Write the structure tokens for this entry.
Amino acid sequence: MPDPGAGSDPAADGVRGAAGRAVAEAAALTLAWHVVLVAAAYGLPPLSPSWFPDLGATVVNLAAAVVPVAVVVRRGWGDRPWLRTAWPRRPLLLVPVLAVALSYAAPGIEGGAGVLLSSAVLFLVLGASEELQSRGVVQEVLAPLRPRPRVLCVGVLFGLGHVLSAVAFGRPVDDTVAQVVSTTAFGAGFAALRLHTVALWPLALLHGLDDWCQVNSPGAAPWWWQLAVAVGYAAAAWELTRPHALAAPPDRRWPRMSR
């Protein structure tokens, strides 16, 4: 009778098991962040004073940020390089991201000073909350995965999370599909960038700037530009996770990071 265990590789099985548990945990954390977001949005009273029209949305995003902050505190991740590094290791990689964000403001920016300042605070908080959750905690949890699957998983979870928000807030199906595609590519691209830049906070600032420019521009960007941006982020995620790209020699300040 053949040995049922013949041909099995305990080490490989252990790696696969660790990867599976990491994906499940990352999915659970993504769900938890959105549950808190939706609960806060529906549970808190309307907050929209004239001096801060976006106060309610800002508080909601601060509430959601409790999830990744709690994980960081519980696991003692406060000393992680991605959390304590302020200046990116390879800042030039972020120039195209800045250009894309500013492209949404090409038609102009609409709104009074108070409205623009209010939305700036909102999107600064939103960018920090989403990046700390996705490219911070979720990406760290997925460390057992190799770089490319990890980046892909971060992107997919980030995109699918927007399905939960769309359902909770009653967004149209066609808008939801387009948003899932764009946010999946965006999430994967940012995850790949974090492997190289190490620092999380510049990504949070660029994330907030991107949203601020889109919301305060006179209208939505043309569909072909949104598609081009999504393709660009997907291509960047692929290129930045090629073995030769990840094998760049470290400098003395930032060791080469694969997580």
User: Anything to note?
Assistant: The CA atoms of residues 98 and 206 lie 6 Å apart. The first helix runs from residue 10 to 43.
